[in-house]
Each structure stands twice: as structure tokens, then as C-alpha cells.
């Protein structure tokens, strides 16, 4: 048990995507609203959506979102271990915000026990600063093949003597089997840690569910402390691409290539909020259509995902669209792909050289050292297709393992706050390393640009706040929904039991 005295509660799930991150985010907001200094904590996160802290370190985006909900500055102490999958069998391992190498699964499981001290130190530092800590698990605690030396679920609950709330997803079906099976597969000592069950993503009349709630409580001895409705909130996801419902006809279509290892897909959430824009994620040629714009997003494996595009025919379709004058934008790994050549002399990705898409006179050389920094500035393309974006402000970050050198036949795409330039643009093709490009002015500016290209009415769209302000409103809505559906008095009693 940690010597730190902060009150703590842990959210675990019956499976991945049961809603652990959302419940943890909502509790962070509620506790903050109730006047507590609160921080999130997840010992180990496996995700390709990451975040760069003010001091230039890398952490999982889910814990950054939870920190924002708690009105706390995101810190790698909230997520000391981040795994970013590079292949089906290997991940880049990031400890305390710094990459320590790429490890295959077997190698990492041998390495993992050495991280106990790192996890404990991160938690104890948080507990010295905050009054409450909301801990999130990963996957399911009933993954019995992984329970030895567990450092993400019940092993963490043991380490910090944390009571557990188990979250189950009723939307997928079989919710009572999820709950019963998860609890019964745990050793008796771990079962005792589960102090309540939350049923998440419920649609319908909760009264119909009540007989089942009573039966599952009798079978497991664990009370159901809430049934949370299926919430239509717009909060950044931990590690998934969300294809939002297209409500009504939207005149503009932006095709985002869905790479096998797409990263930081949250870059495009602000575009999906624009009233005239429909963002489509495209994973095969039949889905490409005739978009108004094509975006190549970030990826953890640029060379492998470029080869995937080349083999399935998407590369040819992007090149054809660019030749026809369609605006094409590459971000991070997508920017690297747009160039003429990619070189990997140190074997950072796969080694050797590879021909790029040839849409920008650009060469990229990969290196082991990762660039991680926050960046502010404005988009500053020359006159041309992207010219109307000039002056749009951004506040984002860079995270990449390559250096790209544009040729003379390009202009910079952005100007940073320190006066330096970034990215490249030539005609209707542009690229940048900046994530978060659309979080402020650029989403509305791009919408207006694309409407104008289509000859459509450019009536001023409904004004929206910037992304940060918008998300704060979403956290408040989440808190309202959880207060209405959870037994917060019981949660307070569980917290009060801690010495």
C-alpha cells in the first residue's frame, strides 16, 4: 500500500471499451465540482492517441482528457507507462514520458515487473498534491493469463489499496454474463475489492432491467450502484476512430485515410463538429468516392502504412485526386508519405529506403530521437487553394521520429510563435507535423474554404467556441448525467471508509 493519504477509487471494466475512461472522466469532473483537488491515474495505457505535456513529455490522451475534466494540468505522473503498438506483436514503450525502445510482447512481459517502482513513485507524487485520485484499469481484470505480476487492474488495486467499481457494457449484450463471469473468475481476495457495479450504455426503460439487477446482486454479492444511459457526448476517445452520425445532408465530405496504425485521430474531431462537414474514414478504395478534400493522418508506422496504401490501391486514388485539383493535406506520418523519399538508416521503423507518393518535393529521414514539443502559431500558406486559411491560429503539438526537408519548390504551411516556419505547401497539396491544427480557428476556416470551392453559400456557420471551451461544456454534461444515474452517496461512503 502507498504511504500517500489521498482518497482513491478505481474503475475497472468487464472488457475493453466498456466505458472505463468515460466513467473515470465523469468522476474527475464531479469531484472537482465538489471542491476536491483530483487527478486521474492509469499505470499503463496502450493507445496511439497520445498527448504532449507542457514539459514536452508524452502520455496517453485519455488521462490528459481526465486531467482537463478535473481542471488539473496533465502530467506523465498520471500515466507513467504508455505502449504505442508498432506491429501486431510489438510496441514502443514510453516510461515517464520518454521512449525507452520497441519491445515484442514477450520481451515486455519480462521487463514489466521492473516498472513497479516507477508506478508507485508516480502515484505517490500525485497523492502528495491531490486529495482524490481516480484510477483507471485496462481491458478486464478477468484476463487470467495476464494476472501474474498484474500492473494495470487488480495488481494496482492491491498496490494502492483501492476499492473498485466494475463497469459493464450492456449495449453489446450479455451484460449479466459479463458481470458474473468477471467477478467469479477472480480470486476471492480480489472479488472483495469490487465494491459496486456500473452498467453502462443502457438504452430504454431501466425499470425493465431491475429484476436482473436484483438477481445479479444476489449471485455476486456486489451491489449495482448505477445504470448509465447511452450518452451522446463529444469527448476525445482513448484510442479509436469515431464515425459520427451524419445528421441531415452535409454538403462537404472530407476523406480521412484510415491507416491500420492511425494515431491521434482526435485531430479531426473539430472538423466533425462543423455543421457543413461530413468526415468519412476510408480504409479501402470502394469507400473513397469523390471527396472535397483528402487528409492523410498520423500513423505510428509510416512506411508500413504507406505500403498498405500502395498495395490496396488507395495511394493511386489519392494521387489521382491531387492531380485533379482536390486539396490534399498530410499530418505527421501522412505528411512524410506525401514526399518523394523516406529513408530509415537506423532501422527506426523498418530500415532501408522507400519511395514516397511524390506529391511534395520532400525527403524524410527517420531517427531514433523523438521530437516532442508544444507549438503555437498561425497557418501561413501563400496565395492558392490553401490561401484562405492564412491567419488561422493553432495551439497544438508535434510528436514524430523523422526529420523532413522540403525542396525549394514549396512554401511553408505554418509560422510558429517563435518566428520559425513549419510544414510545406505546393499548389493543392500541403503537409505539417502539427497535431491539434483544427482545435482553434482552422476548422471553421477550412469549412468556409471548401464551401467556396463548391460554389455553395458561404453564410457564416453557427459560431462555436474553441475546442478547449467546447470540451469543458461536455465534461459538465457528463457530470450531470453521472450524478443522475450513479449512487453518488454510496461512492462517497466507499471513499470515506479509507483511512
What keywords describe this structure?
499 residues, alpha/beta, Rossmann fold, 15 helices, 28% strand
Describe the structure.
The protein has 499 residues and is of the alpha/beta class. It folds into two domains: 7-235 and 472-496, Rossmann fold, CATH 3.40.50; 252-455, Rossmann fold. It has a six-stranded parallel β-sheet with strand order 2-9-1-10-11-12, sandwiched between helices. It has a six-stranded mixed β-sheet with strand order 15-13-16-18-26-25. A hairpin with a 4-residue loop joins strand 6 (81-85) and strand 7. Helix 6 (175-184) runs parallel beside helix 8 (206-220). The longest helix has 19 residues, at 467-485. The N and C termini lie close together (12 Å). The model has no long low-confidence stretch (mean pLDDT 91).
Kindly report how far apart the N and C termini lie: 12 Å
User: How would you sum up the global shape?
Assistant: globular
Largest sheet: 6 strands, parallel
Radius of gyration: 23 Å
The CATH class designation of the largest domain is Alpha Beta
Structural domain tally = 2
Count every beta strand, where a strand is a DSSP E run of 2 or more residues: 26
pLDDT under 50 segments (min length 5)?
none
Beta-strand residue fraction: 25-35%
The CATH superfamily of the largest domain appears as: P-loop containing nucleotide triphosphate hydrolases
Helix count from the secondary structure assignment: 15
Q: In which range does the helix fraction lie?
A: 25-40%
